[in-house]
Amino acid sequence: MGIAIDDPRAVRHGDVGVINHDELGSLWLADHGFSLRLRTIVRGHVDSKRYLVATNANYAKRLSPASTETLIHQGGPMSIEEATAFGQAPELKDCLRLRSWDEQAKEPGRLVTPLESYRAMIVTHLTGTARPVQQG
Question: Tens digit of pLDDT for each residue in 51-62?
Fold first, then answer.
């Protein structure tokens, strides 16, 4: 999402694009009334990459060349302390799920659900008529 936003706060680096797209996506969501929880998950998807590289030896091997390059500019793998703290975040599972979807979306030829199909879910979210998320 943050990659597609034209924002003067975008930090670009060569051919790999917008380094702070997680932050821009979260800010865009905030500006348009989306929940703190959703903004936290979007903001956490880059940290999810940093976490997975730090905690899963095979994960870095699966990153695309652009994702490997942006990782360098996004802080690199998390330190042990950072990974421990991030691993305890209540949104961890959802951040990792979003990270997985982000990677799947980069697969050439992958069929994706049209954006319009999410309209009702978005309206429900923004109007506050969504069911509370069950923690557990």
Answer: 999 999 899 998
CB 37 within 8 A of CB 51: no
Instruction: Record the tokens describing residue 24, joined without a space.
Output: 């821009």
- Global pTM reads 0.79
SS3 17: strand
Structural domain for 8, as ranges: 2-127
Say how far apart CA 45 and CA 110 lie, in whole Å: 20
CA torsion, ordered 63, 1, 9, 127, to nearest 10 deg: -140
Closest CA to 126 of 34, 47, 41: 34
CATH classification of the domain holding 36 = 1.10.3210.10
